[in-house]
Specification:
alpha/beta; Rossmann fold; 2 domains; seven-stranded mixed beta sheet; 34% helix; binds flavin mononucleotide; binds fe (ii) ion
Length: 393
């Protein structure tokens, strides 16, 4: 295949992955994803920015068969979905130099067994001249590994950002066709791997805003012709102000915990709060993760099984705690039969979250009139806290 023109001297050689349904063996991909790679042709040198997941090597190979020479392969991120085909590209172009930062060099050696003498190390802010076109390297650690970086081509005002600003979306078009689809795919990606680093990301966004940019070319999903679209979305996601939303991941074996969830939801909605319930047993964990980007409050609901909190709920609590969401209020409700360690587990699992843990509401069997009063109190506490946060009038 002929490389596809993005703009003058810049070509797309990546691969959509229509059929991939799970990322990181964790996050569902309802819209598939893509691994983008780009060929940049200067007057003297030709470079490849990133490669593709090895599962799609045949696609990259079919493009590269039409590219006579590659002088440089820029590695912006060592994770295998972008660097996994590097060994194959290097065997195709034995003279090519791998250009990357020192942290990435270390990871290329450990993760892909790339020979050390193939790698040229560059510094933050350094440049590489291709003849008429320049690469300026911008280090952007922790989106989402320590070695991640961007590449800017000032002559074309194009910024390559690898995972950053990317979206999980398989599409045959190079540029955005449907902003809503891209928004959801980008939020899914951000929520899973970048949201824990939102404080660091703020600095990266500020750096990017100082550049003159016409195109943002990420390594997943389509290219942005309107950079403000994705920059504005990221600014909303990384902001410290949560939204007037209670995220309610719940699970229930026989419906008792579910009755508590429904009652609490109704109360909160009546108080003017948006509720997002997710049945943990069937929910798309990616959607639940996306909801953690905005929620001011997270209330987990689960019954006791074999002396402890339902294991699926434990998994969600653990996952939420390592995502370090911006939520300010946390709660737990659930039903039990005779006893167990669920309360200890609530305390342990929520010990790392930054926010107030409200008094859990535990109910023996089906909730009684007394228990509903405890849920009323919980709803009032959450409502008051949303008011204090300025989320409610
Ligand atoms: C497989 C199983 C194991 C259970 N183990 C415990 C237990 O160790 N301790 C306890 O207090 N209740 C235990 N229960 C009782 C449930 O916690 C109780 O029935 C609760 O009301 C179920 O809530 P649900 O209707 O939301 O599923 C167990 C129930 C099941 C089905
Ligand atoms: Fe990655
Ligand atoms: Fe990636």
């Amino acid at each position: 295949m002929d490389p596809r023109k993005v703009t003058d001297d810049i070509y797309y050689v990546g691969a959509p992955d229509w059929d991939r349904r799970l990322f990181d063996s964790l996050i569902p991909l309802p819209q598939g994803t893509s691994y983008n790679a780009y060929v940049i042709k200067g007057q003297e040198k030709t470079a490849l920015i990133d490669t593709v997941d090895p599962m799609k090597w045949n696609v990259l190979k079919s493009y590269l068969e039409h590219v006579e020479k590659i002088d440089y392969i820029v590695v912006q991120h060592v994770e295998q979905d972008h660097s996994g085909s590097l060994p194959m590209v290097l065997s195709m172009y034995p003279e090519a130099r791998v250009v990357t930062n020192s942290k990435a060099k270390e990871l290329l050696i450990t993760h892909l067994h790339i020979a050390e003498n193939k790698i040229d190390v560059i510094e933050d802010g350094s440049t590489l001249n291709l003849g008429g076109l320049t690469f300026k390297f911008i280090f952007a650690p922790w989106v989402h590994w320590p070695e991640t970086m961007f590449t800017y081509v000032p002559e074309r005002k194009v910024l390559f950002t690898c995972d950053f600003l990317g979206s999980h979306l398989a599409t045959s078009s190079l540029f955005i066709e449907d902003e809503r689809l891209v928004y959801m795919g980008a939020k899914r990606y951000y929520a899973e791997i970048m949201s824990p680093f939102r404080t660091i990301i703020k600095g990266h966004i500020e750096k990017i805003k100082k550049l003159e940019i016409q195109l943002i070319a990420p390594s997943h999903g389509p290219i942005y012709q309107n950079p403000d679209f994705i920059i504005n979305a990221y600014e909303d996601w990384i902001s410290d102000t949560p939204k007037n939303i209670v995220l309610l991941p719940w699970i229930s074996m026989h419906g008792s915990t579910k009755e508590m969830v429904d009652y609490l939801s109704d109360k909160l909605v009546q108080n003017g709060i948006e509720v997002e319930p997710y049945d943990i047993s069937t929910a798309d964990i990616g959607e639940l993760t996306m909801a953690t980007v905005d929620a001011a409050t997270i209330v987990l609901a689960a019954p006791t099984i074999l002396t402890n909190m339902h294991p699926m709920a434990q998994l969600v609590a653990y996952w939420v705690s390592i995502l370090r969401p911006k939520a300010k209020i946390y709660g737990f409700i659930g039903s039990y039969g005779w006893g167990g360690k669920t309360l200890d587990t609530v305390k342990a699992l929520f010990s790392n979250v930054k926010g107030d843990l409200l008094e859990p509401v535990l109910v023996k069997g089906l909730p009684t009139a007394e228990d509903y009063k405890a849920l009323d109190k919980l709803a009032e506490e959450i409502t008051n806290k949303h008011r204090v946060l300025g989320l409610l009038p």
